[in-house]
Fold this protein.
Amino acid sequence: MNPGHRPVLVLIWLWPFNQTFELDLCSSLFNIHGCVLTANRDFIEKADGVLIHHRDIAWDASNLPWILRPPHQKWIWMNSESPSNTARIPGLDDLFNVSLSYRRDADIRVPYGSLVPVHDGFEDFVDFLPSEKDKLVCWIVSNYKPEHRRVQYYEQLSKYVQIHVYGEFFERRVSEQEYKDIISSCKFYLSFENSAHKDYITEKLFNAMDLGAVPVVFGPSRKNYERFVPGDAFIHVDDFPSMRALAKYLFLLHRNQALYLRYFRWRRRFQVKTAYFPVENACLSCEYIRQNRQYQVLTNLYR
Ligand SMILES: *[C@@H]1O[C@H](CO)[C@@H](O)[C@H](O)[C@H]1NC(C)=O
């Protein structure tokens, strides 16, 4: 076996969310070389890896490849949703070889975002100043369900502080540009996940950090967040005994600019990098296959 010899071929079996994407970006965007991505199913016998997006199987096993698998071929199970939002399609154990998700225990780990060190040579660092703010707390939400814990937090918190709300549920759809403008014009942004699960920390956190709003998070524990970002980069709902206490703290930071600015100290050392779905997922799959030729099987997918 000589992995360096011929390029690794990864077949995109189903276009994620039925959307096509450029297949020749691995080297230019991610510096990953020796990869060929294809969506042409004629290559199923030749592919080293087959990338399958869980959601697009859509409860229908006939959407999976129907071949006698070449011995070296690996099927990659790709999923970006939390366990609460993952359909337990039966019959998928002992079928896939490699897992790809945001979780730290996935074979191929593609978090929604991460912090990367800022370039060296920044000795004369000028502290970051967030852009002008004309709103205290904002929330943009499309999936609003009363049974979600985040909705209960929102309702509680809004008794004590005005929350500027946007999104489909509030009949205020926002464009991509508006999304950015809204977040950067707010002092605090509610980065509330739809469900609380280990490592499930999405663009809701990373976009707020990137755009200069201080994230107020609901999701996994503070400890879990701190495996991804510094503890002084966010406010966690669990830090407070009540939403009233949280509101009080937000007003305190509102009045005390020096305290507020402490939430941006991470910017001296890091910048935000958000994942480029699904191109990055496909390129990282290829890189993984190239480096891991050993036999492996996912015997218990949902665990
Ligand atoms: C991939 O998983 C299948 C199904 O369990 C297995 O038969 C095959 O040997 C595995 N291939 C590799 C390369 O690990």
Observations:
- The mean pLDDT is 94.
- The chain has nine helices and 13 strands.
- The first strand starts at residue 8 and ends at 12.
- Residues 3-110+276-291 form a domain with the Rossmann fold fold (CATH 3.40.50).
